[in-house]
Every structure is written in structure tokens, then in C-alpha cells.
Amino acid sequence: MHASLLQELFSFLLAIFVGWSLITKIPPVLHTPLMSATNAIHGVLVVGALIVVVAALGTSQLIVAGLALFLATLNVVGGFVVTDRMLEMFRKTPNEKGQAAK
Predict the structure, then answer these.
(1) What is the spatial distance between Cα 14 and Cα 11, in angstroms, rounded to a whole number?
(2) Helix (H, G, I), strand (E, B) or coil at 27
(3) Domain limits for position 47
(4) What is the reported pTM?
(5) 79 located within any domain
(6) Are the C-beta atoms of residues 62 and 35 closer than 8 Å to each other?
């Protein structure tokens, strides 16, 4: 294996470990607000994946770029679904608006 490939693999594995370590230390109550705040970042990932799809040279690169585009889009949609569920918890039901339940 080439030295640069080993360095990239090491960086990738280190990023996985650091990301996992950070996520497990966040209280569950903060997961949904943090996810809704990062939807814009996920949108940037979609734009980056589109750029990679356009620049792909071979079939294998096109497949990997297409997979990256699919996963980035899935990430954005999932973020909006979770945000919608979170906001649904704060909406008042018709019974709560007018009068208190007896």
C-alpha cells in the first residue's frame, strides 16, 4: 500500500473514532436540536456530492459519487423529518388551546 493511502485510511479511522466519541457524550435531549441545526451543513454535502458526480471519470467513480449523493440526500431528508417530529411535540392540541381538560 502507498504511504498516502495509509495516511488517508488512518485519518478516516481517526475521524470515525473521534465522531463516535463525541456523539456518545452528548445527552439524548440535545440530539434533535443539534440535528435540526446541522441541516444546512448536510445541504452543503449534497452540493459537494453533485460536484463529485459531475467530475467523475470512470464507472466506479460514478457509482461511488452516486452513492455519496444518495446518502447525503437521505441525510438531509432524515434531518427534516426529525425536526418536524420535534416541532410536532410543541404544537398545542385543540383541547389545550381553548380550555383546560376537566
Answers:
(1) 5
(2) coil
(3) 30-85
(4) 0.55
(5) yes
(6) no
pLDDT confidence tier of residue 10, bands split at 50, 70 and 90? very high
Is residue 12 situated within a structural domain? Answer: no
CA-based torsion, 90, 94, 96, 101: positive or negative: negative
Calpha distance 72→60 (Å, rounded): 18
pLDDT surpassing 70 at residue 88:
yes
Q: Is residue 90 part of a domain?
A: no
How many domains does the chain fold into?
Answer: 1
Residues 83 and 39: beta-carbon distance below 8 Å:
yes
Q: What is the pLDDT of residue 13?
A: 93
- Please report where in the chains the cell 392540541 appears, as a residue: 93
Q: What distances in angstroms separate CA 10 from CA 7, 24, 59, 68, one per listed residue? A: 5, 21, 26, 20
